[in-house]
Amino acid sequence: MQRLVTAADLYAAEVSDAYDEVIEQVVARVADAGSLGKLDLGALSAWKRLRADTPWMAQLMSCPEYTVRQHTQRAVAAAQDQSRTVPEAAAAARSALTPLPGFSTGDALASVVCFVAAPKRLAVYDRRAHEGLRRLGLALDDRPGRYGRYLTLLEQCRDELADQGHRWSARHVDLALFQLGGQKER
Fold first, then answer.
1. I need a surface site. Which of 61, 75, 134, 142 has the fewest CB within 10 A?
2. pLDDT tens string 58-97
3. Residues with Cβ < 8 Å from 121, sequence gap 6 or more?
């Protein structure tokens, strides 16, 4: 876990505090509305650095706002469901997004939507965090349901870090994994 602590320190030194301003604004909007609209998803796409000129984005923009809000409202409710474990809530929230264009496969943007729904519980997934897990010797396969399994591994990391005196949020762990996964291997 020391590699994770070192990576977290490096991330904090290299990334501007202003980088997450967009995600913090969307978190506040979700807390007020209980769902996300196309404007929110567009902001998260930009934050995640996704291309907006893809077929799925055109299909999403063609969906009525009420349809987008209906599915994201289900995801928000699932993510915030305290009767579920963190991995169960993550999996249910991710599953609620599947009917939306651009959310049937891949977990990068979907995980951000889940995260903004429950920022104190969930985390962001991407290929660099996935690589960070691999570098720690933690296996995560690409089968459906990956986001829930990802949160299971993050909770494992949080427990091990807590045993060493580090009280980290799931988001803190995902940032450290992101940093670790992006470093050149020695």
1. 142
2. 788 888 989 999 999 999 999 999 999 999 999 999 999 9
3. 79, 80, 86, 89, 170
Lookup: tokens for 96: 């609620």
CA–CA separation, 73 and 104 (whole Å): 17
Show the CA angle centred on residue 157, arms to residues 118 and 153, nearest 5°. Answer: 70
SS3 label, residue 91: helix
What is the identity of the amino acid at 4? L
B/e letters for 74-93, b = 16+ CB within 10 Å, e = fewer, are: bbbbbbbeeebebbebbbbb
- The predicted structure's pLDDT at residue 138: 97
Please write the tens of the pLDDT for every residue from 92-103.
999 999 999 989
The gap from C-alpha 181 to its chain's centroid, in whole angstroms, comes to 15
Structure tokens of 172? 């803190």
Note the pTM of the prediction, 2 decimals.
Answer: 0.87
Q: Tell me phi and psi for residue 41, to 5 degrees.
A: -65, -35
Domain spans, the chain = 2-182
Residue 50 pLDDT greater than 70, yes or no: no
